[in-house]
Amino acid sequence: MFDERIEHLRELFEYRLGVALTMERDALTMLHELEVAARNAELRRLFSHRLDETEWQLRALERAFELLGREPRCSPSAATTGLMRECLSMLARTEEPLRDGVELSAALTAAHYETAVYEGLVVLADAVGEAEVRALLERSLEQERQASEQLSRTARGLVRVAA
Q1: By CB distance 3.0 to 4.6 Å, which of 39, 133, 148, 160 could disulfide with 111?
Q2: CATH architecture for segment(s) 9-162
Q3: More confidently predicted of 64 and 1
């Protein structure tokens, strides 16, 4: 279905669920790398917590496909690929003492993107009448909002220490 033109709202919803699945798999890879690279112990704990949430979100997306009677299927996510490339490029150009800030910035950017994706999916779930799927997506959305807040607080603290 995803190789063909999208003609119906349900097809769009399923395609966007696939984008979210790819996004979360990419996030899992990125968070593993960030956790290992982080110098700050608080930051490593934060990335570890985000990994746990991301694993839950992956299971929730797989469950959403199951509720729709579909096999989980990834759709391309050029945005997350770009975010990972940008992070790696910045890390390569940044002096060691500043890298935790780059890692935090990358994680915060990803969390904002993920928030936007989940907001769109909640709207689509409503539009196609999938209340149970919507509930799963709402929980992921709330996790992303909380993650953004926590990452922002941590970033402000790190910047103060670095200044």
Answers
A1: 148
A2: Up-down Bundle (1.20)
A3: 64
